[in-house]
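subagent[fold] <- orchestrator: predict structure for attached chain, return tokens only, no commentary.
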Amino acid sequence: MKRYPSYLKLYESGELKERVEKLYTRLENCDICPHRCEVNRLKDEKGFCKTGEKVIVSSFFPHRGEEFPIRGYRGSGTVFFSYCNMRCVYCQNYDISHLGEGKLYSPEEIASIMLYLQEEECHNINWVSPSHVVPQLVKALYIAVKNGLKIPVVYNTSSYDSIETLKLLDGIVDIYLPDIKYLKEDYGRRYSKVKNYPETVKEAIKEMHRQVGDLKTDENGIAYRGVLVRHLVLPEDISTTKDVIEFLKTVSPDMHVNIMPQYHPYYRAFEYPELSRRIKSDEFLKALKYAQDAGLNLVND
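subagent[fold] -> orchestrator:
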């Protein structure tokens, strides 16, 4: 059965163009993410995310390391955006997220990247760390659709997202790939340097699920719509996994989740003794059991 991404309907109705205009207006006094820095990014002023009007792209390629429903057999068309609206002290991609490694791209150039990834037969377009650059990406999408883009968009996020921005993505994004790090306020402040992380991430994931529902896959097991949550297990239960699982179950008892064991103390993690080691096998198995006992759908890398 042939399935088409929902953004095609928005394009045909003219709504996609209107969304671009609404989002760009918000860049003038930027409130795209929860930081609400109120700088004029159209004049290249920069706030917390250190990003002006143009977007920095670190890399793009058919990614074959994502979860199977995302990568499938031909890879996920991944575009890594530089900088981030969080400052996780243990970030494994700190050269991208903290240091801004990459090259400036216009929406027209990003549209060309997406069309290239479609030509490479990727199953989807995977926006990695998009929360701070949504207007530019929706404009790039509009240009790409005019030129033949017709594969789903994956919104691959740390979940520190603005509800107002997410609502403008309703009908644009078919697959949400959010991450939940922890559900304690002081952990968000200490380890990710953001305020109100637990409440922000909860509201964001509820909104994502409202839009696209539980993960749906085709006859080959490839996702075409829905939410798949990632949760990285951290040492000393800093990841508050039991609370995370209990929350996800309230959103949907059929939620799909990837409990990830690959934590490694990157970047500044050694400045925090509690984060300065790999997790133990029993820590991971305990986290995995929480999800199993809750009856959630487990998805592996």
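orchestrator: received. Logging for downstream: The mean pLDDT is 97. The two ends are 26 Å apart (CA to CA).
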